[in-house]
Amino acid sequence: MNRPGTAETLAAVTAEVVDCRRCPRLVEWRQRVARHKAPRFHDQDYWGHPVPGFGDPAARILMIGLAPAAHGGNRTGRIFTGDRSGDFLFAALHRAGLANRPRSVSREDGLRLRGVYLTATVRCAPPGNRPTPDERDRCLPYLVRELEALSRARVLVALGAFAWDGALRACAALGLGIRPRPRFGHGAEATIEPYTLVGCYHPSQQNTFTGKLTDRMLDDVMRRARALAGLQGAAG
Asked: Is 169 exposed, middle or buried (0-12, 13-18, 19+ CB in 10 A)?
């Protein structure tokens, strides 16, 4: 019997993510937000389901966020799409030659990622943007399966400390580990064969509006990830 290819495996994970109801608190919250819309999006239909990962099945870089935003991914159905964090991130991906557009507003806007796959540690928008440890652990198998499917991935970029922890837990679930446990920091690196884990401050408004994370800092992480992944060609 032929084993399914990467695209088919990722599609199967996506289907399971979208139907997931493992966390009652998150199910209730994401559906409540979808019913009681933000006034500026009153005329839009909210996704209101768990949000799957997306990107290039041949990705050399896997970027991991925290969770979908209540009025971002929970509205659009695509991680980082339709919120300020995504505006900052996709602009940097475009400058690095890893996305064909500098902005993403919907699942149908024509955005394509090149050499990178984008996902999250938790797939439902959590109240206060704070998943519980139990919710993280229930969602972790999806990240593990994405790592297994993305056989060409060599660089894991963790957007924030929560994603850094999730990446380490996913690697441990695959029998990969490192001692002592590496600490998160912007620009921190840890080798967990066959991956290099790279830390980056999360592109939240709290970080970008205060200057804790700047365009230049994020561009530096993108350049480093490209180099580690062997994507040294032109960025355009």
From this structure: middle
pTM here is: 0.95
Contact 144, 174 (CB under 8 A): yes
Residues 44-69: tens digit of each pLDDT: 999 999 999 999 999 999 999 999 99
Residues 6+ away with beta carbon under 8 Å from 213: 88, 186, 200, 201, 202, 203, 207
Cβ within 8 Å of residue 107, ≥6 positions away? 76, 77, 78, 81
103-148 pLDDT per residue, tens: 999 999 999 999 999 999 999 999 999 999 999 999 999 999 999 9
Cα distances (Å, whole numbers) of residue 40 to 34, 44, 71, 234 = 13, 9, 10, 39
Q: Which residues pair with 120 in a beta bridge?
A: 65
**CA gap 16, 48 in Å, rounded:** 15
Position 236 scores a pLDDT of 39
Sheet holding 155-159, edge to edge: 54-55, 116-120, 61-65, 155-159, 195-200, 189-192
Domains of the chain, CATH where assigned: 6-229 (3.40.470.10)
And the tokens for 77?
């159905």
Residue 5, SS3 per DSSP: coil
